[in-house]
Amino acid sequence: MIYIRMDMDHIHAIKHLIEKCNEYNLDLYIAFIDYQKAFDSIEIWAVLNSLNACRVDSRYTNLIKNIYSSAIMHVQLWNKTNDIPIKRGVRQGDTVSPGLFIAALNEIFREMDWHKKGINIDGELLHHLRFADDIVLISSNVQELQDMILDLNNHSKNVGLEMNISKMKIMTNKNNNPVIHVEGQQLENVENYIYLGQKLTTKKDNMTDEITRRVSLSWAAFGKLKHVLTSDIPHNLKKNLYNQCILPVLTYGAETWCLTKKLAQKLTKTQRAHERIILNIKLSDRIRNTWIREQTKLTDVMERAAQLKWSLAGHVARRNDNRWTKRLMEWRPRVGHRSIGRPNTRWRDDIKKSAGLLWMRGAISRKKWFNMGKAYIQQWIEIGRS
């Protein structure tokens, strides 16, 4: 079974937003927000106020209040000791603290009046996406984005959060470089940005750089484990190690990919190179790839990538919780126009080609969708090998 992570939901949403804005020639301006030591800086009173606003049971609120109000840091140098009371920040490493931070951050956004800002998605304005402290602000014009950033900065300061202006970036699908200042500093304009581990770009050829990056990272992961993968341990253990530690690096974010034949072949060639090193076989030995796969028994990279994308497609289609992921996928802008000529490859194109125009209906039945996916997965395996 393939489990869909929340970070993939956010990556999928923002990539669909970029895809639709590019397809219909809509102006898009994105600001990536970064905080300095966000989890260590948030005021405790802001966390408690946010819990009260969410109507959390007072017993839990009082328990959290007691934990944080009595927290101290003990420093000992030689025979001297100092106790320093901790008045800021949430603890890290437990399951509760991220929820506390998110609750406080959610209260910040509730206080801001942004009901007329953002991009109209079928009658509702989308002005930001949040995953923990990774925040993306979205607008259709520069001035509005500037106002949103300044507004967020002011509200963030009230609860102890400081923006890391040097790491904040602006990205747009227009040819101009928007000028946006925060506290006297101009934010840098970029053509691409690493968001939740995946490279985002507004360029038309938006997958080549990410696949190249995935290949490079997979080689780095392979290099760290090469001494194990080329040792005398059983091939079954090597297979498990590769499938659990290297293949996920190579296919991270595959749920959101729009692959071409050339990119699929690049991924397959990378895995074949890994396999030859594991078996100590040179390319000049001219040994058939089918024999090599019989020896390594690795999960095919395109099989894994296709499984991930097919699972996400079914997962999103079955949703009825009004999340942006599905709404952006179904969005058909009422303004804007498509450019003349062949459109760029879209995320849903290969899904639609395999499952038909009404593929979202077919995805409602998990069993039916699973069976339909076998042909889709096999198709991409063959494309990668061709």
From TrEMBL:
Gene Ontology BP terms: DNA biosynthetic process
InterPro entries: DNA/RNA_pol_sf, Rev_trsase/Diguanyl_cyclase, RT_dom
Reverse transcriptase domain span: 1-200
SUPFAM superfamilies named in the record: DNA/RNA polymerases (SSF56672)
Domain of life: Eukaryota
Protein name in UniProt: Reverse transcriptase domain-containing protein
Source organism of the structure: Cryptolaemus montrouzieri
